[in-house]
Amino acid sequence: MRKYNEKQAFALRAGGVLLAGASLFAMGCGKDSKAAAPPGSGAMPVKVLEARAVPVRDTSDYVATLKSRDSALIMPQVEGQIVQIHRHSGDRVSAGTPLMQIDPLKQQAAVKSQEDTRAAAEANLQFARQQFDRTSGLYAAGVVSKQDLDQAKSALDAAQAQVQALDANVREQQVQLRYYTVTAPWNGIVGDIPVHVGDRVTTTTMLTTVDKPGSLEVYVYVPIERASQLKMNMPVEVLDGSGNVIGDSRISFVSPQVDNTTQTVLAKARIANSKDKLRQAQFIRARVVWGTQKNPVVPVLAVSRIGGQYFAFVAEQDQKAGSYVARQKPLKVGQIVDNNYVVLEGVKPGDKVIVSGTQFLIDGAPVIPQGAS
Q: According to the model, what pLDDT value does residue 232 have?
């Protein structure tokens, strides 16, 4: 009987241990199951920024060309062989400075021939004048007839006309002779000289250029879609390779015609070039400022792009529950200003734009808005 009681007590003790172990296991499992609860079961704290409207310039950048109104393309007015080049590329010259000499020997001979012919005509004029004076005296004395006097007068008039015609020919040949010396049309800098001594040139051969230092014109070719917005005195900025503004100007000319090849409209703007930073025929970036308007801005990090469409999450308050939910808004964005997208459509000033945790959000998810620093 005593032995039986010891076995029974041992069984009771073992059962109590197993029961306690089962209870502890159950408690441990309960804690693990509570810790493993999905985090989406409650509202997610997110940082938000209120979209604010700021003044934003509406601008467009185009590749433009610099041209000078004070750049002369030097081409010969006569044909011939170059016998001397007086200046080098880069030389500063004044107006009338000889640049090149085209062989003038043939033209000099033509001028000499015309001058000799004129000298002979001058001698004939002197003789005709003497004959007229003599005939006039004889006619007054009644020695010769009126017909003789008229013939002498006619010969004098013909001699005078011939001398005048030869004078004109001599002047023409002398002017032509001056064209064989190519001179600078104004004060400036000699450009590239592609010809050499001994080359034969024609009136279509480019000899060099002479550029006046100073202002240049920006040639901006604006697509026809925005051409209707071009206006006189519209601001234009000239940018360097880093995007820095190196010159400000305003549109001074808008072409009334469309380029048939490129379907663009030409606009011009003058720009000062006092420090010679810019060069003739240089390609630059020109920024046309269309105007200024107020648009909301959204941080770049708050915007996602899916399939070419931009989206942002906005915290909207549920009027019934009083809580906030995340709404995914499609956006139409403009340019980037200070790490913010300019929003054209999709977000209004005052909207609470979610700027954190957007990768974990879905449309309609409950959120707790918090101010972002």
A: 93
Q: What domain range is 123 assigned to?
A: 104-179
Residues 105, 188 contacting (CB under 8 angstroms): no
Number of domains in the chain: 4
Does residue 228 sit in the same domain as residue 241? yes
Claim to verify: residue 207 and residue 85 sit in the same structural domain: yes
CATH number, domain of 344, equals: 2.40.420.20
Query: Are 93 and 196 in the same domain?
Result: yes
Closest of 346, 349, 353 to residue 369, by C-alpha: 353
User: If you ran DSSP here, which 8-state letter would residue 43 be given?
Assistant: P
Q: How confident is the model at residue 205 (pLDDT cuts 50, 70, 90)?
A: very high
Q: Give which of 173, 198, 178, 258 is closest to 224, Cα–Cα.
A: 258
3-state helix, strand, coil in the chain (%, to 5): 30, 40, 30
Residue 264 CA neighbour count, 13 Å, CB half: 13
Reduced 3-state DSSP string for 137-205: HHHHHCCCCHHHHHHHHHHHHHHHHHHHHHHHHHHHHHHHHHCCEEECCCCEEECCCCCCCCCEECCCC
Q: What is the pLDDT of residue 69?
A: 80
Summarize pLDDT for 234-277 with one digit per residue, the tens: 999 999 888 888 888 999 999 999 999 999 999 999 988 766 77
Distance of alpha carbon 299 from alpha carbon 341, whole angstroms? 6
Enter the pTM of the model: 0.57
Residue 34 counted as domain residue: no
Q: Whole-angstrom Cα distance, residue 361 to residue 48?
A: 13
Q: pLDDT of 123-168, one tens digit each?
A: 999 999 999 999 999 999 989 999 999 999 999 999 999 999 999 9
